[in-house]
Design goal:
There is one protein chain. The chain is mainly alpha-helical and about 90 residues long. It contains two helices and no strands. It is elongated and about 60 Å long.
Amino acid sequence: MDTTVVMDLCRTALISAIVIAAPLLVVGLVVGLVVSLFQALTQIQDQTVAFVPKILAMAVALVACMPWLMSRMVDFTRDVFENAGMP
């Protein structure tokens, strides 16, 4: 494997990891902000009030995005195996 192929593979791996993690992180961020705003308005300062909705929303987002996430991971893996043997 050439150095440029390795660098391209590393770049593609990092971009794929960011794209795969982004939907879950965005859902966690949005739900966290909404719950924090709710806690500030009602002055409820309980840790589980922030934790449980975030976990549930991220689980729903994971189930909803799973087919797309799996296709992205399968495409990346297929590209790695196709390009691994090329000189």
